[in-house]
Design brief:
Layout lengths: L1 H7 L1 H20 L7 H38 L15 H55 L9 H25 L9 E4 H11 L1 H6 L3 E5 L4 E4 L1 H17 L6 E8 L3 E7 L20 H6 L7 H12 L2 E7 L3 E9 L3 H6 L2
Parallel strand pairs: 2-4
Antiparallel strand pairs: 1-3, 4-5, 5-7, 6-7
Length: 344
Amino acid sequence: MWKSFLRERLSWILFVLIWLSVIDALLLLEYDIKVSSTSFWYLNLLTLCLLILFLLWRGIKERRFLKKLSLMLRNDAYDLQEMQPYVRTKAEEDMLSLLQHIDRVYRRQTHALHVQQREQQEYVTTWVHEIKTPLTAMKLLINAHRTELYKWPWLKDIEDEWMKIDGLVDQNLYSARLQYLEKDYQVQAVSLSELVFPNVAYFSKWCIEKKLHIDEKNLDILVYTDSKWMQFVVRQVLSNTIKYSPLEGKLSFFSEETPKYVKLFIADQGKGIPTQDLPRVFEKGFTGNAGRKTKGATGLGLYFSKKITDALGHRIEVNSLLHEGTTVILTFYKPNSFDNLSKM
């Protein structure tokens, strides 16, 4: 701080030193003025001491103002009005006025942005709910004519496209709700089977077409989570798992329980993920080599899953071996005794 202060006041220091040099030159060159060497050096020393004392006084005053301002701006809940008692000079007053103006503009723009985001979120939510009605009607029509698939083979293609649209609509809905997740969740005891089986039923058509064998073990364990959000997470994981599973492959669902946590494993026998891609699977828009070859891959499923599990206090991991398969692990931490007491 002192280095910058002295650098900014260099013109003052140079002016005083030049003025002192001029006076010294006059005293030495003017024969009519008789000054003893003691008085000469006393004058120079006194001037320099006064200069140093003045710089110290100014520096301490400015340092107090700037330090208070710096500490205040580090706090998100700052109030620039609190700086008013620390203003001592016109320059500091002008600086504070400028900062207050910038602060007002920033707050106005931030408020306008929040309003715009809220309106956008409300629009997306309304749009999703509106489009869900015709999608549900389409599904009912498809189910009503399922026995006539042999006459209308194109009906199968329509159902495939319906599932893609429904999945994308779901992603849009949960994406819009994600920023308000802390106000839109309810933690309760849920069995792992309640998270897995509804999603297996949802993708039953794909499983049947690929002749996938479903292997499940020990899914009656209870975990504490929000059923709605975690069903969405499992759906995103299962969508990728089925998409990249080979014909007549196997999907495995099993769990592991310890005193501290419960883990749900979702494993496939697909192509696997290259080692260099594993650290990036949760990045927004990342699809990897397999995703680039697959039509319609968005790279958003695992990104949303990571955001949701982190917000709910869970954990999601991906382990994979190339050409052997991939395992997604969802970890649900058990509430400790302190959590239980805090809820009483």
